[in-house]
Amino acid sequence: MNRFVNIGFSNLINSDRVLAVLSPDTLPCKRLIAESRETKKLIDCSFGRKTRAVIALDNGIVVLCGLSTDTISGRLNGKEEAGGL
Predict the structure, then answer these.
(1) Any idea where the domains of the chain sit in the sequence?
(2) Secondary structure of the chain as H, E, C letters
(3) What is the value of pTM for the model shown?
């Protein structure tokens, strides 16, 4: 059964497809974002805010998110936080 997780601003992702939740500050992650943008496999769900988490999905799509990696991982593990967007 699919379980959808809120990644902020009323956006949801299928938790079964998440491979990794990454910090956007590392050089390998910046390369991943650039490659995904070039191949049209990037979804920007940050709504113009600073990207605080990068979510890699099993189908090669990369999702940019305005919530922190800790918040996203907590939601994926079933620990919903009250202060999220």
Answers:
(1) 4-76
(2) CCCEEEEECCEEEEHHHEEEEECCCCHHHHHHHHHHHHCCCEEEECCCCCCCEEEEECCCCEEEECCCHHHHHHHHCCCCCCCCC
(3) 0.88
